[in-house]
């Protein structure tokens, strides 16, 4: 396992270098996977191709071509990491501390890249031949929106006339102890994801000598605009989107007084929203979030800056549209001197099925319960964005879930410091995909209880 994790981490390291030397990281990845998964690369059931130079598409042939295929998705790139931010181990060392492997990408989502491939390798070694064919797609630029990797893979599949039964990507996880009053862990399967907007704010001004400053500078005007956005969060919308279904599903797992509140969301949504907004990870369920992520201005300490720019990254609650968010930014900033530009954005994603007849949801749920018998499974709205949104023309059912455990304090590791995965959890991830691939081989789901009763 440690060897695999080292491959994960070292691979992540090379992906980071991709901007300087893409071919090096590619060669390194190919070398790693060929060495680690020889059976996959020698199996007559598997076709592997590179898309957009660096993304990987695998087709695993099923013995029953009449069964609609599905797609397992993950990505090979990572966000940057710097040891000087306060990591307990160098972020690309894969150092093991107390049963955890530390490293950028261990949660997001190299544990899934390796987990999927490892599970497939084991299945092939056992002589397993799937009945239902499936694709594995490993994008190389998810962290910069997937416009090269996922977009091109989706377009290749579309050109080939592929229709998918469902897609399973990263996103949600198993949450334990994150919401007070909720008894036991909850596996949230993302049936949708929030929209997003990246907005650039800028102020331009004639530069001059700092000894004779104007009463307001470009930096001061922009800083005030950014502060207004932080001081005036987007409206609380808890209860108006699919997050309502999540809490309805989980209601019976809350301790008694809270259970009553959770079971009556028609009355208590504002109260629950008020409680959830107190913590950044649960606030993400409540509203469109606003994060000022970049601020650039000034070239010299004695020159009035001619240009100040800030980037604001928003994640849009499903009860709002991109246009509504842009209008609110405009009115909150309320200063004509601040130029507001939408750099990129999208509305929230459609909601996938999660009922008893939903093949993808039910198979993922069954697999989760096989591995973790004590968790409660519920649908949820993923608060981050994933490559899976580029596949929405190929299927109506997209799910976002990796069985990674998040305990208190762990959500900050996502894109943060001390990202890590326990060795035990990595084993569980391999077991999850190992089981999922076999569970997908049923022809169709058993009849739901309700229709049996009707008969
Ligand atoms: C029982 C309910 C507890 C809920 C607590 C939810 C806390 C959410 C924590 C983590 C999930 C974050 C998922 C984000 C996945 C996005 C992957 C990614 O980085 N994409 C790029 C991007 O969004 O910019
Ligand atoms: Zn990710
Ligand atoms: Zn990420």
Structure description:
- This protein is of the alpha/beta class.
- The protein is built from 14 helices and 15 strands.
- It has helices spanning 2-16, 22-36, 38-42, 110-125, 149-159, 218-231, 243-250, 256-262, 265-276, 280-283, 322-333, 359-371, 423-439, 449-454; strands at residues 46-51, 55-60, 70-75, 96-97, 100-102, 134-139, 167-175, 186-193, 195-204, 289-297, 307-316, 339-346, 376-382, 398-406, 420-422.
- Strands 1, 2, 3, 6, 7, 8, 13 and 14 form an 8-stranded mixed beta sheet that branches.
- The longest helix has 17 residues, at 423-439.
- The chain starts with a helix and ends with a helix.
- The model has no long low-confidence stretch (mean pLDDT 93).
- The structure holds ligand LD2E54VC and zinc ion (2 copies).
- Residues 75, 108-109, 142, 170 line the site of one zinc ion.
- Pathway: Amino-acid metabolism; Energy metabolism; electron transfer; Lipid metabolism; fatty acid metabolism.
- One of its GO terms (molecular function) is lyase activity.
- InterPro entries: Bact_exopeptidase_dim_dom, Pept_M20A, Peptidase_M20, Peptidase_M20_dimer.
